[in-house]
Amino acid sequence: MTVITFANTKGGAGKTTAVLLLATELARTGHRVTVLDADPQLWISHWFEISGSINNLSVISNVTMASLEGHIRENRSNTDCFIIDLPGTKSPLLTMALGISDHVLIPVQGSAMDARGAAEVLDHLAFLDLKMGRKIDHSVVLTRVNAMVSTRALLQVKTLLESRNVRVLNTPIAERAAFRDIFDHGGTIAALDCQKVSNVDKALENVRLFAAELLALLPARVVRSGRDFRFGRRAA
Q: Whole-prediction pTM value?
């Protein structure tokens, strides 16, 4: 069982989109995924409601600080990976969720405000390390990146993160119509109509590269059906 938390205290950083993309890709490849929706906006819960049944994927809505650990305890026997979608604000839930995570992913757009929201998450991680000896692996994923343009703001964000020795995934999440439309239509990227939504093939490739890069960072093995797996690979 693995817990991945997506966190940025500034809303609009592309956090829930990144959660959806990772969750659906893990489910597509056969992993049992439970998304814990702690964001009061409930975007991913709404998406799941209009999607109908999706193999290997479930979403639990209205997760709070009081209910978080109970949801994990109750569902750990049927879940390979929990993905926590935190509020895009400062919240008491932040420290608790970070503390039980195997990996924290911090989505950041190319803006100074997003970078400050990311810095608050990094400060919480540093506090957990200093006060509790809990060193939690973490990465930043750049979101809503224009594949054709590297803006000055985006370069400034990269420089700020590098100055703090923060790992930035090599695969950004691009700005694509498919990633917006999925919240309106439900379902998965692969199910979108290529005649109505542009560049679905490129969106799928982006998702697969993003998921593969993140999963390669996870040391935990997942037990499924009596066999040991590391995400995406049979354990040696």
A: 0.88
Q: What is the pLDDT of residue 229?
A: 39
Cα 166 from Cα 101, distance rounded (Å): 17
Domains recognised in the chain with CATH numbers: 2-234 (3.40.50.300)
Digit-coded pLDDT (tens) for 216-234: 998 654 434 333 334 443 3
Alpha-carbon distance values, 20 to 44, 98, 136, 187 (Å): 7, 19, 22, 10
- Contacts of range 203-210, beta carbons closer than 8 Å, 24 or more positions apart: 203/174, 203/176, 203/178, 203/179, 206/171, 206/173, 206/174, 206/176, 207/21, 207/24, 207/25, 208/25, 209/171, 210/18, 210/21, 210/22, 210/25, 210/141, 210/169, 210/171, 210/173
The SS3 call for residue 54 is coil
How far is Cα 44 from Cα 16, in angstroms, rounded to an integer?
7
- Tens-digit pLDDT profile for residues 8-32: 988 888 899 999 999 999 999 999 9
